[in-house]
């Protein structure tokens, strides 16, 4: 058994989103993304299916030529290789569920 908290040790960055691995299981990696209002994760895609859960705040989630306004409690699931972007409209705590085969380094490169 493994446990983690999405709300402990929150350290936001002023210049870009803060990305950290909360825990890894045999099948997935659970990533926390902390975004300040006005921060952007430019368009990118994941090599495997993902789930994005907004724990706190608000973001504009661009996908398939439209912008979805996600708020606290919202989830979105995407198949592999779907281009998407995130723009933070209110300080946010985001949970990103990745395949075990995916890399957190890939996610970090999006914000660098």
UniProtKB/TrEMBL annotation:
Record's signal peptide: none
Cited InterPro entries: Cupin_2, RmlC-like_jellyroll, RmlC_Cupin_sf
Domain Cupin type-2: 35-95
Domain of life of the organism encoding this protein: Bacteria
This protein's name: Cupin domain-containing protein
Organism of provenance: Gelidibacter salicanalis
